[in-house]
Write a structure and sequence with these properties.
- The chain is built from 3 helices and 3 strands.
- By secondary structure, the chain is an alpha+beta fold.
- The chain has a 3-stranded mixed sheet, covered by helices on one side.
- The longest helix is centred in the N-terminal third of the chain and has 18 residues.
- It is elongated, with a radius of gyration of 13 Å.
Length: about 80
């Protein structure tokens, strides 16, 4: 895949993830999100403030089924 298409794909994945996380943000979720990708796959990276096991499960549920990998970590640990 051409580098510009990879970049565009990463932007689209990030925008979609942000839309899907809107409800959790409304509940107070604070995070930093970015996407990295190659021609073979993309990864959504998140650093979440005060991440709990329950919230990690909820985030994964919201973002699952998008055909990407996830890396969700507590912002305090990273």
């Amino acid at each position: 895949m051409h580098e510009q298409l990879i970049t565009l794909n990463n932007i689209l994945i990030r925008d979609a993830a942000e839309r899907h996380l809107a409800e959790l943000r409304g509940e107070g979720l604070q995070y930093r999100l970015w996407v990295t990708g190659t021609a073979r796959s993309s990864t959504v990276h998140m650093r979440v403030t005060d991440l709990t096991t329950e919230m990690k499960v909820r985030i994964a549920d919201v973002l699952s089924g998008r055909g990407v990998h996830f890396e969700i970590e507590d912002a305090q640990v990273a």
